[in-house]
Amino acid sequence: MSKKYTQEKMSEILGVSLRQYVRIDNEEDLPRRDILKKLILALDLSDQELGQYIREISNKIA
Questions:
Q1: Among 38, 15, 39, 13, which residue's Cα sits nearest to residue 27?
Q2: Taking the domains of the chain in order of start, what are their residue ranges?
Q3: N or C: which end of the chain has fewer CB within 10 A?
Q4: CA 3 – CA 10 distance, rounded (Å)
Q5: Closest CA to 16 of 53, 1, 29
């Protein structure tokens, strides 16, 4: 799932502040639905990778 984007570049792609992206990247916060859609496209995630990501981050936040 690595595209070698910097956090700054990903925040630009997703249209969020660097601070917000860092919280998402560090799995401290769930992305909103619109941000999640952009994240899926930017990283070209498969359904399996997406499901795994959602399960992992949900478990950490819960």
A1: 39
A2: 7-61
A3: C
A4: 10
A5: 29
Residue 1 has pLDDT above 60, yes or no: no
Question: Can you spell out the DSSP letters for 1-62?
Answer: ------HHHHHHHHTS-HHHHHHHHTTSSPPPHHHHHHHHHHHT--HHHHHHHHHHHHHHH-
The rounded distance, in Å, linking the Cα atoms of 58 and 51 is: 11
Q: Which pLDDT value is given to residue 62?
A: 62
pTM of the model: 0.73
